[in-house]
Amino acid sequence: MNSAIIGLGGIVWLYLAYRFYGRFIERRLMEPDDSAPTPAHRLNDGVDYYPAKPLVLFGHHFSSIAGAGPIVGPVIAAAAFGYGLSLLWILLGVIVVGAVHDYTALLVSVRHDGLSIPEITKKLVGPRARLLFQVFVWLTLVFVVAVFAIAAAKSFVADPRIVIPAFGLIPLAMVFGVLVNRLRMPLPLATIAALVVLAALLWAGNAYPVELPFPASTARQVWIGLIMLYGFCAAVLPVWLLLQPRDYIAYWLLAFGMVAGFFGLFVTHLPLKAPFLTGFTSKTQGPLWPMLFILIACGAVSGFHSLVASGTTAKQLDRESHARFVGFGGMVTEGALALLALLAVTAGLAYHTGESSLPALPSFLEKGGGGPIGAFSTGFGTFTEPFLGAFGALFGMTMLNAFVLTTLDTSVRLGRFITVELVGPRVPLLRNRFVATALVASCAFALAATGSEGSLWPMFGAANQLVAALTMIVVSAYLVRRGKPTIYTLVPALFMLLTTCGALVYKGYAYLALGSPNYLLAVAAAVLLVLGIYVGFSGVSVIRNRAAHGTSSASQAGVSRP
């Protein structure tokens, strides 16, 4: 099978789905109303609530949600199960589940003063479900910050050439923020200037790699500390000054990388070397269901996206009609990234050792083999070699590092929001944005410094998908109160809830069946399972009761419209 044909067909499918299904969901479920001022205007505080231009907000949102997940997941799934069902899940899941999840979560938050989905759960489902949801989300965000900090630190140690572009982007973003938001420089002119400086940073990084004068383990800890310091600053400074412009500029780097990747795909039109399906069970990952749908998370559906949509994006949305472009469109674009990652390792790499002159995909996933990130960078370099030469693999690594850091800084800010919502008026000290941010960053640093995140990583996919399922149940509760159909959100929610519970049962049993049982992971799986079942059934019960009583009045929906 020619990879260029699949790539072109996938892009056309995603575009048509965005244009037609996205508009259908917009009109059928949410009915955006631009006459209603958004929280970005009504609650504008110049720090968190601040209206953004649609393209700027799209860049921030996409850069925040597109971490390493849409790359790592497809790589592991392709090695475990082949490309066929992985491709189908990406192309179908991203539309009927992921994009609907992101778009509806964004607008539900906008209509509740930009509050997070866990906080909205209190109004739509109940206070106990809200408390459990918030605690779980807070712990998940600390974990996300820790593992992404380690991923970024490892990339700095592995390839010192990306240090200057990564850290040089911080002052560049602040200057950009001042020029656009305070001095009112036209956005196109400021964008061109920023991209010229970014190109210079890439050149400088390649010419002057930065290596710390420490052993690799010590250097990693130093980088983690610096990354956490950056995360703290990005979380407490006004959103227009650092977080939003950095994500926007990084988006152009990511966009160029995706364009270069697909262009290289069409130039080389390499055949797929991985099998369509290797079997219904993988020795390394377990049964195809539920594990395939857990491995490919961010490229098809991700609960973390609802935290971004209802955490930072909802506070910056200028008009409700922009939500489809930002939320639905952002998820569709991430599906395109997952498609590129899948093709990069199934066509840009060999599948079996000795199959061709290309390195083999499974060899990257062996111990010391470079992992999924190395596999993607090498496959990306194969696609782009005709016009980027040896620089292609380096650009792929730089692009991925930008994904990681833009997700990390947003995660720290989200952790601050959840902390404030969780403690309420009971602990005034933790309502201070500096103290709340320091708590999140210090806990994440402690987790990252111990290295314990490695043993918890297998649970991340299940936790992430569980948040997605619960978010769509909360959205369904909102829809039923407005008299809107819930089939487009509730059916995907129940599928993801069932899949996640199946994965937790399988992983929990697998941890106990090891020669040396891992009781920590088994208990973590059990806790997540209980949480998902309780919040899920609570939400479904509320939906059924309200549907039976016909509570369709918009006034009962808790919609904070002026």
Q: Please, could you describe this protein's structure?
A:
The chain is built from 22 helices and 2 strands. It has 562 residues and is mainly α. The chain has a two-stranded antiparallel ribbon with strand order 1-2. Helix 3 crosses helix 11 and helix 8 runs antiparallel to helix 9. It is globular and about 65 Å long. The chain starts with a helix and ends in a 13-residue tail after the last helix.
Give the SSE map:
Blueprint lengths: L2 H28 L8 H4 L11 H12 L3 H13 L2 H27 L6 H8 L2 H32 L4 H19 L5 H21 L8 H21 L6 H26 L12 E2 L3 E2 H8 L7 H7 L13 H24 L14 H4 L6 H18 L2 H33 L9 H18 L2 H4 L3 H22 L5 H26 L6 H31 L13
Antiparallel strand pairs: 1-2
Helix pairs in contact: 1-5, 1-11, 1-14, 3-11, 3-14, 3-17, 4-12, 4-14, 4-16, 5-13, 5-14, 5-20, 5-21, 6-7, 6-20, 7-10, 7-17, 7-18, 7-20, 7-22, 8-9, 8-11, 10-17, 10-18, 11-14, 11-16, 11-17, 12-21, 13-20, 14-16, 16-17, 17-18, 20-21, 20-22, 21-22
Précis, in short:
Helix content is 72%, strand content 1%. The chain is an all-alpha fold and 562 residues long.
Count of individual beta strands: 2
Supply the CATH class.
Answer: Mainly Alpha
What structural class do you assign from the helix and strand content?
A: mainly alpha
Number of helices: 22
Q: List the helices and strands in order.
A: HHHHHHHHHHHEEHHHHHHHHHHH
CATH evolutionary superfamily:
Amino acid/polyamine transporter I
Sequence stretches where pLDDT stays below 50 over 5 or more residues = 551-562
Distance linking N and C termini: 55 Å
Per CATH, which architecture? Up-down Bundle
How many discrete domains? 1
Mean pLDDT: 85
Please summarize the sheet with the most strands: 2 strands, antiparallel
Share in helix: over 70%
Stated plainly, the CATH topology is called: Amino acid/polyamine transporter I
Rounded Rg: 22 Å
Taking strands numbered 1, 2, ... along the chain, how are they ordered across the largest sheet?
Answer: 1-2
Instruction: Name the beta content range.
Output: under 5%
